[in-house]
């Protein structure tokens, strides 16, 4: 179509590429499809069924006042052309006045800015929560490692004291015959192995051969 400005006529190119293009609906009709027997069988077996066809025609009515923003060019025959900008800038064909278009663009820019701020804030918040959880897990792991280190140190010290006191055979682990009995097996209740050997024995008690459900630390004094 063409934009008429007094004596000047400007042909608008690539209209459908324009932003903010609001067309008037001049034709809108729905035609219901009448299916034959073959069509019903086809839809039954293949699951594809057409219910009808919607036909819509949109256009700018003659005499509509429009605002066009793009590149103005002159063709070889002297015709003035409004075309999309060559540097990928927005191309506008709209029925809005220029002031309304600029206001809408500012509102969209402001909305985008607020959405960006909101998204950034949520990202920082969730990032902080994630960092806090990771720090808590790391601290928990370090505390567990420190506790295990202290337990191992206490166990070595206790075993050394026991060896210095010549531990009786009845109080020694029935498996290695070296370390003191440190683990009680449940549900049988036998206190018969050290902690080192308990890591290798998980199925049955070495004394009564009953199933081991759980283990518990025990200390002989």
Task: Describe, in plain words, how this protein is organized in 3D.
The chain crosses the membrane at residues 111-131. GO terms for molecular function: ubiquitin protein ligase activity; zinc ion binding. It is a multi-pass membrane protein. It catalyses: S-ubiquitinyl-[E2 ubiquitin-conjugating enzyme]-L-cysteine + [acceptor protein]-L-lysine = [E2 ubiquitin-conjugating enzyme]-L-cysteine + N(6)-ubiquitinyl-[acceptor protein]-L-lysine. This protein is an alpha+beta fold and 221 residues long. The protein has three domains: 2-111, no CATH class; 116-166; 169-217, Herpes Virus-1 (2-Layer Sandwich), CATH 3.30.40.10. The chain is built from three helices and eleven strands, in the order βββαβββββαββαβ. The strands form four sheets. A four-stranded mixed beta sheet has the order 1-2-7-6, with no helix packed on it. It is elongated, with a radius of gyration of 42 Å. The mean pLDDT is 84.
């Amino acid at each position: 179509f063409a934009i008429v400005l007094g004596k000047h006529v400007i042909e608008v190119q690539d209209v459908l590429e324009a932003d903010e293009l609001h067309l008037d609906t001049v034709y809108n009709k729905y035609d219901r499809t009448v299916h034959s027997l073959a069509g019903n069988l086809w839809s039954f077996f293949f699951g594809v069924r057409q219910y009808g066809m919607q036909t819509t025609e949109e256009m700018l009515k003659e005499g509509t006042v429009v605002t066009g923003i793009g590149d103005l060019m002159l063709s070889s025959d002297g015709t003035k052309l409004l075309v999309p900008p060559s540097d990928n800038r927005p191309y506008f064909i709209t029925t809005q006045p220029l002031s309304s278009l600029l206001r809408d663009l500012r509102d969209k820019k402001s909305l985008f800015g607020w959405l960006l701020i909101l998204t950034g804030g949520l990202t920082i918040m969730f990032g902080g929560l994630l960092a806090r959880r990771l720090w808590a897990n790391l601290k928990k792991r370090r505390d567990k490692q420190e506790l295990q280190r202290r337990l191992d140190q206490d166990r070595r010290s206790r075993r050394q004291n026991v060896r210095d006191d010549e531990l009786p055979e009845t109080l020694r682990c029935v498996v290695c015959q070296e370390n003191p009995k440190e683990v009680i097996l449940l549900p049988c209740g036998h206190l018969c192995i050290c902690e080192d050997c308990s890591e290798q024995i998980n199925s049955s008690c070495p004394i009564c051969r009953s199933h081991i459900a759980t283990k518990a630390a025990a200390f002989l004094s």
